[in-house]
Design goal:
about 400 residues; Aspartate Aminotransferase, domain 1; alpha/beta; five-stranded mixed sheet; binds pyridoxal-5'-phosphate; disordered N terminus; Aspartate Aminotransferase, domain 2
Amino acid sequence: MGFVIFLREQLEFQIKFKHMSNSKKVETQAIRGQIERSQYREHSVPLFLTSSFTFPSAELMRGTFAGEEEGNIYSRFSNPNTDEFINKVCLMEGAEAGFATATGMAAVFASMASFLCSGDHVIASRAVFGSTHQILNYILSSWGIKHTYVNPTDVDSWEQHVRPNTRMIVLETPSNPGLTLVDLEKAGQLAKKHQLILNVDNCFATPYLQQPIKFGAALSVHSGTKFMDGQGRVLGGIIVGKQELIEQVVFFCRHTGPALSPFNAWMLSKSLETLPVRMERHCSNALQLAQFLEQHSEVSKVLYPFLPSHPQQDLAKKQMKLGGGLVTFEVKGGLERGMRFLNAAKMCSLTSNLGDSRTILTHPASTTHSKLSIEEQQAVGITKGLVRVSVGLEHIDDIVQDIEQALAESK
Ligand SMILES: Cc1ncc(COP(=O)(O)O)c(C=O)c1O
């Protein structure tokens, strides 16, 4: 074992995951994709907080190590809670297999390092998360893996950058924090034409709002820390995709050790049960906040994928179910006004996380993206006054009221 081989037709899968429903609806899959009950017939899946697993005989132990027998060996390789979390995300995204990691960045890194060798080339959307830039710019570069940054809004222009040694396309949609979208269908077609691995960071959309594999992605990567957990409690990450690729990810992770802890897997799997309901509310609150901000005289620009003013609204509606839980806006008055605005917030939290039940305000230029040069920040649309709102699940009236009073107070 070591990862979940997701082949619905196979009996072994049905034995391993009795999800008690053949529904194709993500709401049901997020709940019923659970592992089978133990001999205690518990309703809610228990926590398998164990580093390793026992064997009734030396023969079975040998066979399991040799890969001839199914079974857990060691929680760095697999664990029932981790398997359940992976299984649910595979069901929700239409993926064949997956591997769960300790953080989202471990997933991003493993999704690249499992495949790329010295001399390879990567095409990367310019609008990717700050740490993803650092991996490409410094870590992979120092290992002789080159990259070309491309314009996320013009996938047609990417083909001219494909080289004989190009191996992978890396992108994020919607991007953090600029909420720029990449046309997944076009990226999928390009990847197919040149036999490239299309690797999509699907963190902002979540498996509920967007399934990149349906558009031709080979890998879909998440930070579980965000909306999947949804309450700012645990770190986690996951890579799902084609089975033959996930086998390489498993090899890389099994021996380098970025496994998700069973406790965090248990938390994340439970949280997935409510992801669809939470995302509906995150998205409706975010849309209402964006509409409010758009009318405000102290705000010069608002970005939200489902707003008619978003330059890619049509694309957002094509590839996303709803607009997501993030809104970004530019407060008039630049950096100092932006800082005053954050200081004036009474209810909203100032913290670097996102995807929490509590509304969070951040200032990317001084925090998450501060390691980027000014030119790099500008290239991904980060201006000094840009504020990112991770819109929570509080009543929308309270969210709007706090932001309204902070805008007035910081004038
Ligand atoms: C788009 C995106 N990818 C990856 C990550 C990294 O996730 P983690 O913090 O769980 O390592 C983040 C974190 O904010 C993110 O926003």
